[in-house]
Amino acid sequence: KQEVTQIPAALSVPEGENLVLNCSFTDSAIYNLQWFRQDPGKGLTSLLLIQSSQREQTSGRLNASLDKSSGRSTLYIAASQPGDSATYLCAVSPSSGGSYIPTFGRGTSLIVHP
Amino acid sequence: DGGITQSPKYLFRKEGQNVTLSCEQNLNHDAMYWYRQDPGQGLRLIYYSQIVNDFQKGDIAEGYSVSREKKESFPLTVTSAQKNPTAFYLCASSSPGLAGGQNEQFFGPGTRLTVL
Q1: What CA–CA distance (Å, rounded) separates B82 from B36?
Q2: Coil, strand or helix: which one is B104?
Q3: Who is most buried in A8, A18, A21, B50, counting CB within 10 A?
Q4: Mean model confidence pLDDT for chain A
Q5: Burial category of B15 from C-beta neighbours within 10 Å (exposed 0-12, middle 13-18, buried 19 and up)
Q6: Residues near A81 by Cβ (< 8 Å), separated by ≥ 6?
Q7: Contact B104 A44 (CB under 8 A)
Q8: What are the Cα distances from residue B19, in Å, to A28, A48, B22, B59, B75?
Q9: What is the least distance, in Å, from the CA of A51 to any CA of chain B?
Q10: Do B110 and A100 make contact, defined as CB atoms within 8 angstroms?
Q11: Which own/partner pairs from A1-6 qualify as long-range (CB within 8 Å, at least 24 positions apart)?
Q12: B109: Cβ–Cβ under 8 A, 6 or more apart, which residues?
């Protein structure tokens, strides 16, 4: 059974720092990996989707990498801003198994203070 | 605009009542999902449907029921059998990938259910 772990569980940084959020998974038979952002009391917003054949994806100040062989993905946030404060979740979709249900990590709660 | 809508945003239930949460999508996605989110527990899958008129139980289906009569709609009923229904409920959808798997998953804004 796929297990997804996100470290750290919480992070507090001053504005302007570059930071890295980690996501690890136990089964490398994945179809894609998706990073989400969730603000308090809101739904999940898709940030980046990396297909299993890709190594990284970029959107603005965000860069996500994928290393299937080691079961790891990182989300890099450049020049962090207070508006980046949220919970970040990663989800791994399987490439086999029939149901193709994504497995979610528990998230990293990020606070960027001015 | 394409997306997923959930209603109501807030819902209050009395003990012994059944309540239904609405989820509608206009993304033309085949697959739809219901998740429950509790503080410190992450997302837990309640039910999912990969095609109209078919759905499967997730990890915590007891006390819940769903229907999938239309591609666009996947309502969730929280029955009186669900002993601790107070939670944040999220609906999602996705389309199938070309070589198996599911493509990008999109989420609605959520419904917060409180038992009085």
Answers
A1: 12
A2: coil
A3: A21
A4: 95
A5: exposed
A6: A15, A112
A7: no
A8: 40, 34, 10, 20, 10
A9: 9
A10: no
A11: A1/A27, A2/A26, A2/A27, A2/A92, A2/A94, A2/A103, A3/A103, A4/A90, A4/A91, A4/A92, A4/A103, A4/A104, A4/A105, A5/A105, A6/A88, A6/A89, A6/A90, A6/A105, A6/A106, A6/A107, A6/A108
A12: A42, A43, B4, B5, B6, B9
- Structure tokens of B85? 């229904």
Closest CB from B48, B56, B102 relative to A93: B102
DSSP labels, B59-94: TT-TTEEE--SBTTB--EEE-TT-S---EEEEEEEE
Q: Which of B42, B99, B102 sits opposite A106 (nearest CB)?
A: B42
Query: And the tokens for B101?
Result: 């798997």
Chain A residues touching residue B99 (CB < 8 angstroms): 95
